């Protein structure tokens, strides 16, 4: 066994300060990865990194200098989880707040591209890497008031497919994990600009929406398949959700 083989494999998780990102950082650490927790909120990721024996790097995926600094600190990366993202608003197309739509494209799509592009040398340096992009069922289905977000998450799906084509022949897998209804502390609260009642209404009467740990489990499963096994995409929803509009509520 070479010394390289005894070193822990490195995983980078963006948006690691809460929700699916934080749960994924914990799950990957439990699998023996040295996890680089990247997010804007330094205190949160420092606490998480201390908990899991990882590393905290403050990073805003919408800022090139910030992402360049992340890449400079990570010479080798075996697993990249592009999780940073989110939704703002539920405006219809005829009332679209273009600033909100631009932000959603910026964080969900361009952020993912910026981080992936910056870390490609580190992914290549690992000799065996996987990128897991956190998409959404919003990247499969349209729903009223959702177009700003669904357009961005369709973008995540298509960028993932394109990367898989472009990197074919290299030892880098590209996967997309696409969750449906996941109850986290922040996703809906951010979407509804801090309105807790509106955020709670999203999950009202739903028997067990997914939680962040469910998605983290799926991401970790995808990331820990044998190197020759590529999981292109994995759609994960609560049992109560059959489609965007088809959610069983008691
Ligand atoms: C979240 C799924 O249905 O709120 O990514 O757009 S949905």
UniProtKB/TrEMBL annotation:
TM spans (from-to): none
Entry superkingdom: Bacteria
Molecular function as annotated in GO: oxidoreductase activity, acting on the CH-OH group of donors, NAD or NADP as acceptor
Keyword check for Oxidoreductase: yes
Family, per entry: Belongs to the short-chain dehydrogenases/reductases (SDR) family.
Protein name in the entry: NADP-dependent 3-hydroxy acid dehydrogenase YdfG
InterPro entries noted in UniProt: NAD(P)-bd_dom_sf, Sc_DH/Rdtase_CS, SDR_fam
Coiled coil: none
Keywords on record: Oxidoreductase
PROSITE patterns assigned to the protein according to its UniProt record, in alphabetical order: ADH_SHORT (PS00061)
Keyword Oxidoreductase: yes
Biological source species: Nocardioides exalbidus
């Amino acid at each position: 066994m070479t010394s390289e083989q005894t070193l822990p494999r490195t995983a980078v998780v963006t948006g690691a300060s809460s929700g699916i990102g934080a749960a994924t950082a914990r799950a990957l650490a439990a699998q023996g990865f040295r996890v680089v927790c990247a997010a804007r909120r330094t205190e949160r990721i420092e606490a998480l990194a201390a908990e899991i024996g990882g590393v905290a790097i403050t990073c805003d995926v919408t800022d090139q200098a910030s992402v360049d600094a992340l890449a400079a600190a990570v010479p080798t990366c075996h697993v990249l989880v592009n999780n940073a993202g989110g939704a703002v608003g539920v405006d219809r197309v005829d009332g679209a707040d273009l600033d909100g739509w631009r932000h959603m494209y910026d964080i969900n799509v361009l952020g993912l591209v910026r981080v992936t592009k910056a870390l490609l040398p580190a992914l290549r340096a690992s000799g065996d890497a996987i990128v897991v992009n956190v998409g959404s069922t919003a990247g499969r289905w349209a729903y009223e008031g959702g177009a700003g977000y669904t357009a961005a998450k369709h973008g995540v799906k298509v960028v993932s497919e394109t990367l898989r084509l472009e990197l074919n022949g290299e030892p880098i897998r590209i996967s997309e994990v696409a969750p449906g209804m996941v109850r986290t502390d922040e996703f809906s609260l951010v979407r509804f600009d801090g309105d807790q009642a509106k955020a709670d209404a999203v999950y009202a009467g739903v028997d067990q929406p997914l939680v962040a740990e469910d998605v983290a489990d799926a991401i970790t499963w995808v990331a820990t398949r044998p190197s020759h096994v590529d999981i292109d995409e994995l759609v994960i929803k609560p049992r109560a959700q059959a489609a965007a509009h088809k959610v069983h509520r008691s």
